[in-house]
Amino acid sequence: MTRYLCSAALWFALVAVSLFAVRVAAATEVEVAIADLAALDPAKSHEAREVALAALIRLIERDDEALAHTLAEFATTEDDALRGRLAVALGLVDDPHIEAVALLMTRPHEPLARRLAALDLLDRRDSVDPEIVGGIVELLESDEPPAVHARALYALGRPQDDPALVRRVLAAVRPHALGPGDELRARALWVTAQWARAEPDLAPVLAAVSHDDRRLRAAACFALGQARLHTVAAEAALVARMTAEDERPAVRDRAWRSLRRLPVREDTRQRVQAFRPAAP
């Protein structure tokens, strides 16, 4: 019996040593792959970047230790270029831990650059996890720098159909769709159109179609063309922009392009067909 116990103990010890060696090897491999990414010369070819990214992705797809190491590097590195490259790799790997870690990095106690990088990663992930979406919504509901709000709008992910989540998202986005800041507001209008499920949800977008700023009018026309919900009011607003003689050509063109995407009425279809877009 003692002999068997000793043999078993020796076997377990050998397994432990082997597993440790595998982990060390994996850690070494991922360190090399990350170092290769960090050393990339921006002037080098796109192909070199793709090769380095593919090598890292292969490692983190097959080994949890490599994934953990890469996430830790993403969370702690001070190299902005490397963090961006790691975000590209992590954005392509199917593992829910990535989104959880990224969401933790968006919390207010983290440095701003790290928070923005984490939101960029969540944008790449396009998450449909209600917990992740809820965490992003919290940022939109809070008093945050405009840069955080802007990245959070991009990170919201694909629209979902859960009524409670839709209401919460639209309520959080609405102040940004009606507030200052051209880029922030334009993105908020697009998100509103994407998540809208009932005609009243589109109210901020319809209001922006007649805004004094031509850029917001164009953004609103674009958003209506991308909306999942089509309404008579939205169609009429786009027709009004397309046919307004005193409207900027770029806005009229944007309204025309949006109408071409929509299932419009016959009279509208004829107007769209008769419209002549501005020369490029």
TrEMBL record:
It comes from the Bacteria. The keyword Signal applies. InterPro entries: ARM-like, ARM-type_fold. Keywords: Signal. Residues 1-21 form the signal peptide. The keyword Signal applies. This is HEAT repeat-containing protein. The lineage of its organism: Bacteria, Pseudomonadati, Myxococcota, Polyangia, Nannocystales.
